[in-house]
Amino acid sequence: MIKGIGLDMIDLDRVKAVLERNPRFVERILTPKEEALFQGYRGSRQIEFLAGRFAAKEAYAKASGTGFGKDLSFTDVEILTGENGEPCFMQPRKSEEFVFVSITHTGRSAAAQVIIEANERRS
Question: So where does Mg(2+) get bound (predicted)?
Answer without folding.
Answer: 8, 58
